Amino acid sequence: MTTPVVPDIAQLQELPLATPPFSYMPQTWGWWVLLGVLALACVAWAVRSRRRWRRERYRREALAYFDQLVQGVTDSQRRLQTLRELPVLLKRVGLSMPDAPPVATLAGAQWQAFLEARARAPLPADFAARLHTLSYAPASDVLAIPEPEISTVFALSRQWIETHHVAV
Domain ranges in the chain? Predict the structure, then answer.
């Protein structure tokens, strides 16, 4: 009688991977057109985003400077200088806008109208007057302004810098 042959694991061989019966490359020109349109849309989006980012540079720089002013308000030695610089910062932002009209000469009601026209949220009717007080009032009057009013002016200024409308 013959002894049965037991298969050995060493006899196993790895099977080759089967090749698919079709190509993964698009077969019709329509897919190439769709790929081209998608690539053009991505490039257009990237160019537009870059232009917008560059156009908004003045806003980012103004907010960074505004943060320095906020820190300066708490320092008693720099408080007056900081309060005087806030209206200057808003004027610089107005001048830096891509569609800026001649903002440098605006004052009083015209400055208030400019700020309100560009603001996304309503501003108080005396906002420009408050900024005028910070700029031109005697030092003792500026330092005597109560803290809640200073906080309100700073909050409104930050809101305006962050959200003002630029026509493009």
Answer: 57-163
